[in-house]
Amino acid sequence: MKREKYQFNAETLSYEKVSFSFKQFFLQKLLPQSIASLLLGTIFAILGTYYLSSPLENQLQTENDNIKYSYKQLNNKIHKVSTTLADLQESDDDVYRTIFGVEPIPATVRNAGYGGTDRYKPLKGYAESNLMINSTRELDAVSKKLIVQSNSYDEIVTLVKDKEKMLACIPAIRPITNKDLTRFGSPFGYRMHPILGYLRLHAGIDLTAPKGTPIYASGNGVITRADASNRGYGKHVRISHGYGYTTVYAHMSKMLVKPGQKVKRGDLIGLVGSTGLSTCAHLHYEVRINNTPVNPVNFYYNDLSDEEYAQMIDEAKNSNTHIFEW
């Protein structure tokens, strides 16, 4: 039942029934309520926008948090890799490259960046752009350093292989075995030549042994000469070992190799004799570096123990024989 409203009339001293037109109803009733509802709805909408999240927004926020966490974990791993790489670089420069006589890699090469256009432009414009760009830049820097270090190790491996080849070629054993050696003859150095009558360099050492004693190549190489010399060496063999090294084996009774033949350390190349300018059966043995004679006793590190080497040096100093060559 619709309730009717009355208003007291002071002039007539009675209550009179109140009637409203639609316009009055709209202005006094409907409009204020609509405005109030609209304001209230707007307030709730604003509050919901700033303080309440939709399921999709919650999902996106979770994904964003996971991405940030992943980048932070990536940064930690990059830092650990960078630390390890720095240790490897230090060892490479201060140890490996030093051993093989190679200059350290310049810091400008190790720390060189990427040139050209902005590599990180696609990562700009996001909420976490700085995090993504910094992480990617660090990863690029480590990747570049790893490439440089990998190339350096490739170079070291090549040097190691070449060093192994070099060590196999360097004359490093005595050409006559210890059991066959009778005594240590004339040492390396200057001495008075009994025939020529003046001080002259004895460019090798003399190792006395019975005629026919085997003579072995002291390092890998190629035979460059195997003939009879007219300068007092008699039947002799020369081996080019590469890397500037040459050895000479003189006064042989028989040569068992030919020019151009490849030999390895320990291969039989001839027999002891007394051909050429010689007074008894022995081997005159020379080591030359870039055609300059050096003392062969310094190259026996593969053949003798420390005690045997010290004894040989002592014998070489005190030996005084009458074995001479031209």
Question: Please, could you describe this protein's structure?
Answer:
The structure is a single chain. The protein has 326 residues and is α+β, with helices and mostly antiparallel strands. Strand 13 (282-289) and strand 14 form a beta hairpin. Helices cover 41% and strands 22% of the residues. It is rod-shaped. It has helices at 22-51, 55-99, 107-110, 129-169, 306-318, and strands at residues 6-9, 14-17, 183-184, 189-192, 199-202, 205-208, 214-216, 221-229, 234-242, 245-255, 262-263, 268-272, 282-289, 292-294. It folds into three domains: 6-51; 68-169; 183-318, Glucose Permease (Domain IIA) (Distorted Sandwich), CATH 2.70.70.10. Strands 3, 6, 7, 8, 9, 10, 11, 12, 13 and 14 form a ten-stranded antiparallel sheet that branches. The longest helix has 45 residues, at 55-99.
